Every structure is written in C-alpha cells, then in structure tokens.
Amino acid sequence: MLSINSRMLIAATIILAGFLGVTGITLENSFRVNAEAAMKERLQLQLHTLIASMDQDDDGGMTLAYPLYEARFFTQDSGLYAEVLTNEGQPVWASPSMAGVHIPLHSGLARGEQRYEYLTISTGETVLAHSIGLTWGDNDSAREAYTFVVAETLQRLHDEIAAFRKNLWPSLGTVAIVLLVMLAVILRWGLAPLRRVANDLGEIEAGHHLELKGEYPRELRGLTDNLNALIRSNREHEERYRASLGDLAHSLKTPLAVLRGAVDASSQAPDGIRSTVEDQIERMDQIVGYQLQRAAASGRKALAAPVDVEQLVTRVVTALKKVYAEKQVEIAVDVPPALSFHCDEGDLMELLGNLVDNACKYCRRRVEIGIRLEAVQGQSGLLIEVCDDGPGISEAHLPTVLERGGRLDTQANGHGLGLAMISDIVALYDGHLEFQRSRLGGALVAIWLPGN
To answer: Which of 12, 83, 148, 291 could form a disulfide with 249 if both were Cys (CB 3.0 to 4.6 A apart)?
Structure first.
C-alpha cells in the first residue's frame, strides 16, 4: 500500500497537471485572441494610412499622393498587400507586393461598410483582409465608389503564437516541478511527527522503551495517549491472566498434596478405590503442571523485544547435555550467528526445551537442531527443525502425542505434556507444527512461527 506521502504527492501531481494544463490552454487561447485583435488593429491603421495617402489622378485612376510608411507594401512576397478596386471588381491600384498575387476580394461595399475576412490567395496562403467601401470625387455627381483593401498573411500570427507556446509550456513545467518539490518538502516536514511515532513504536518493539515518550502535535496527542493506554492495558491484562492461572494452579497443589499424603497413609482402603484415587490425583497433578506451564507462556506480542536465538539454543543444549550425560547424546546445532527473533523469550525457551528434551529422550545417539529465518507464502518467520535417530512417530499416533498427558512410551519419565504445550504455544503465535520422518531415521518436528 502506498504511503501517505506518496498518495498526497500523486494526488497533487494529478491536480497540478490538470490545473496547469487548463491554465496553459487558456493562456494560449487568450494570446491567440489578443494577437488576432492586434493584427486587426494593425490592418485598420494601415488601411487608414492607405486611404490618406491615395488621390485621384487626371485620368480618373488612383495614385499614391504620399508614400506609405510600411516598406513591406513595396517588397514582393512580403505577405502584406494593398489594393483599390472599383465596385465592378476592377483593380485601379495595387501595391508592388501584389505582383503575381490575386486575392479573391469582395468588391461593391457600400459607403462606410467595413469587413474582416479570411481568404485564400492564389499562392495558397491564407490572409486576413480588411476592406472598406468609399466614394471618391470632387462633387456628388462625379463621385465614384471604390473598395480599399489591406491584407496580411497569417504566417506572422502563427509565428507569434508558436513562440509564445514555446515559452509557455516549459515555463509551466518548471513551475510545476518547483511546486512539487516545495510540496514534497512541506509534506516531509508535516508528516515528521508520524514518522517519529513509528520510530518510537520501533523502540518499544525493540524493548528499549515501555511506552511512547516525547512531544507530539496536538492532532496526534490523542492517538499516542490511546496507544500508551492500550499498551499498558495489554501488559496489565497479560500479567493478571498469568497471575490468575498461576494462583489457581498453586492453590490446587496443596489440596492435591494432602490427598496424596492421605492416600499413601491409608492402608485400609480397597486396592480398586486406592488405585482410582491415585490415578485421578496423578491426572489432576498433570493438569496443574500443564496450567502452570501455560500461564508462563505469553503468546505472540506485537511489541516483543528481540531474542538472541543462538544464545538461547546454547543454554538449552548445555543444560540437556548434563541431563543426558549418561546417554552420551550427540547434539548438532545449525543456527546462523546473531540470529534474533521478536517473541517472548520464555515461550521460545519452552518450545526448544520440550522439543530437544523429547528428541534426547527417544533418540539412540544423535539429535540435530536447525533454526533459520524462512518465508512462507510471502510472510517471514522463524523455522525450527529438531530431528533424532530414534524410532520416530507414525501418523496413527500423532493425535495421541498432541493430547495433554498423551504418551507413547509409558516407561519414560514425564507427564506427557511437552508436545501438547508446544502445540498450544505454536497456536498462540499462529504458527505451524509438522511431524515428518527425519533423514536420521527418527522423528523430525518442524515449527514455523510468523514474525521478523
């Protein structure tokens, strides 16, 4: 899932791109409209200058009485043209730039009538033509109607628009980049308290702190206070739960001891009743032992401190080598150096202790322990494998060994609670427990616990 910073930057980029795109199109259209208006004003000024410079000669034709200030009228193919037509469409005067050029003009305009129109001239170019109808003469009876026309190609207009566009879009792109960089800096500064909360939670997970400490913005204070309250409540609830189970189990031990002593002291009780009472006392004692072990199991914690797995395995192996010194069990360990795992140390000790103890108890001579980090379906976790060269466990007997008090070898010491306890701890961590045939010929117990 994308981070808040990435989401906001992506959203801002989309909005900014849309906004600047609309702005650029609007500015370009506005520039085009203004450029066309300026072109029309320029043509109008040139048309008025043309009219002021014209005069009628003795033959009734039109001639320039004063030179035009625009030199392009006198340059061929300059793109600026001027012409005077009669109402019948006959040209009576044309600028030198009109040489070889024909403009399909509309003649016959009424006096004072003006017109702007886009026309295609004989060269294939498009021009904007401005024309006006006038009458010319010394008296009303001799006045003749003429159409004065000034036209200019659109090449100059297109060049101006292209130059504006060439500068506009890179400028808007630069503005967008600057704004996005500024927004990224602002977001980083604004979201810094959230990163600080995440770092502080990491410190709690690493076991360096018990709760969130430090100054946070007012908007996050409620969140941090609630997190601290949740952490304290979870810790207190766990302590109460474990204390209650411990108290319950310990409170039963004294009555059980009294019952056991009474049965042992009673020599008059029938053998059947005595055997039944002893069996039930033994069963209750197993349950008490199991509940004491279960009370010690913490289960999966979101903020557990890391456990040095290699050091813990060394402690377990050292202790069990002393216990099974007479059997001379060979214990091989394969654990990566500095391997750590976030869990309750007591739970991991209980798992390894029971697994290795069972392997040593039922092996012939050799036990192998392998622990490593391994991902299952994309989730990282800790894989524990313990195998031996003993008789192994058949699939038919698996339900029995996982029951509380279930034992295949009734001659061995113990209450049959080890594998049941292991199964419960694995369930507390949402892990997996598997039994396989080891390459040594005995049982291979594999446990996978999710986590880092």
So the answer is: 291
